């Protein structure tokens, strides 16, 4: 027998004796009869046996997994099988990529708006600082001019007082 005392799922379904060297036994255990039944229905036992015999032993497990997947896909969609599932998934990927691109573009717009607002705020701060500095310079200039005028007025007063004194007969 293939794997233990009971025949493999293939031999059970085909109602034959499971030989020691049964090619199906390692891949279709007796406790999972549905696995072989679906593969047999889609591909036929003879074709599966030929495929497995043509492959190296280390590739047979993956091949059986692929056959089971394709057989289940054919049961759900007899026309397209797994190609239909692949096409559906590719369409979903394309839609999600488009949504991602749109979301990234929207994020970029938001970032650019935030940078523009930050730049405006920075420019306003700079303008306010420049305005404050200009105001401060004007105040300093006005203060300096008033000091010059005060000094000039004081000089005028002194000069005027000299004039007055000259007028009154005092020479200095």
Count, helices: 5
Written as H for each helix and E for each strand, in order along the chain, the element string is HHHHH
**Strand coverage percent:** under 5%
Mean pLDDT: 81
Termini distance? 144 Å
Structural class: mainly alpha
Roughly how much helix do the residues carry, as a percent range?
Answer: over 70%
Radius of gyration: 49 Å
Major sheet: size, sense and barrel closure?
A: none
State the total count of DSSP E strands. Answer: 0
Net shape: rod-shaped
Low-confidence segments, given as residue ranges, are: 152-168
Organism: Erythranthe guttata
Family: Belongs to the LOB domain-containing protein family.
GO biological process, one term: regulation of DNA-templated transcription
InterPro entries: LOB
